[in-house]
Each structure stands twice: as C-alpha cells, then as structure tokens.
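FIELD: query
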Amino acid sequence: MITRLLGPSLLLSSPVPFQAPPRLSLVDDIRSSLQRRYQAKDVERVLSAWGAMADGHVHEEDLPGFEAEPMLRQQSNSYVDGLPVSLFYEEPTRDFPWAHALEQHAHVVRDEFLSVMQSDVIEREGNDWTGLADIRDESTVAYGPEWRTLGLLDRGVWDPVNCRLFPKTAALLKESKTPCVEAFFAKMPAGTSIGAHSDGCNFHLTSHLGVDVPEGECWLQARAAWPLSGRGQLQRPLPASPRRAHAHPPTARPPK
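FIELD: result
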C-alpha cells in the first residue's frame, strides 16, 4: 500500500503492482552492450557475426587443397567475415611476444604441474579433471571420449580454486599478457585420439605448450601431421576454425 501525506489528512491509494522492466534475452543484451560501448560502424562485422551465431548459422568453406585433404575445411559457428585463414603459425615465438615468454618459462609450468599431480591436492581441494561429456553436448564426445581438462580460465573468467593450486602458471599467463579466453591443462591416455574437429571460431588461436608429452609418440594434424614435443615447446598456434586432429598412439605412425 502506498501512502501520501497531504496537508492535515492521510490519503490512501490502491496498491500499484510492481512491474519489472522487460528482460532482454542474452542475444539482445550483448548486442545492446556492444552498441553502447562502440560506434556501430566500428563493430559492424562483430554484430553481424553475433547475429548469425544466434540464428544458428554455421559458416562452412573448403580451403585450398581440400580435394586432396578433407581436413582442409573451415567450420565456424562464430565467424567474423573478412579475416585471413592460416592453418598454423610456423614460428610463434617470432610472431607473438607472449609465445616467447611461455617457452622461456615452460619449466615453471611443468614443475608446478608435476608437483601438484604427485600429491592428492586436486582431489582434496581442487576442481577435478573434466571430460567432454561434462561440458558439452553428448554428440561431441565421439571425437575425444578420453580427453580431459583441468581449467584455469574459461571464457575470460579465472577459476579461483585451480588458480590457487597453480599460482605460478596463472601468474605467467597474466604477466606475459597472453591474450587468452581459455587456459587449461589437458590430458589423454596412450592409445587414444581426438578425431577431426573444429573449435568453431575463426578469430581465436589454439596453442599447445608441452608439459609432459612422450617424445615421438604423439602428433597433431591440421594439414600435414607433426609430432608434439614434451620439452616446453609451444606448438604452432592453430586458428580455431579449420579442422584438426590429435593422437597419442603408443606405436602408430602419424599420417603423411
């Protein structure tokens, strides 16, 4: 009930039902935030990409050489038009200052990771390893059922529990100004693989820093395959929309 005092008398009025302002959908909310922060002409491609993703559009494009190698295909549901496509960057430490910093201090990441793994602190205090069945639609599990991750950063938000367990690694990522939206440790057992897939985004890179990788036994394929190194080397950063595959076979050779 609302009361208003007027002169010597007390007036009573009927209650007015509260009406919350209409809630924007997430799609409209983010679009409005972009338009408030930037000039529309400056983010025209971003707004278009956001709208296409919200509508469920997936950009698919055959890359040069697709006829001979079906892996050469771009699949992206988060696609900004006009960006060049590179399958990988041959010399990341030359092209990206943060890559050089990560390689220089890879021993810090390795030592901290192995120290934590040799204890039971993950089970006692941390967030446990997560598989695709836990974080994505079940249909994605087929290409990597044994793959597991232990997250430090997800969509720009740092995990306070795991960052407390890996403070040196988290600090390295921040101090090196690595422009990441996700950061996590990943593992897969011997004899397993991740099939051909795309991360569905053409404006992110995926980089792998070897922590504890059996030399000569693991490989990654984007066009040709190359072995993954376990000696603190940052593998060639890969754009996240072309298809790729990973494997940890105990004896099998990588494809040519």
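FIELD: remark
The chain has a mean pLDDT of 78.
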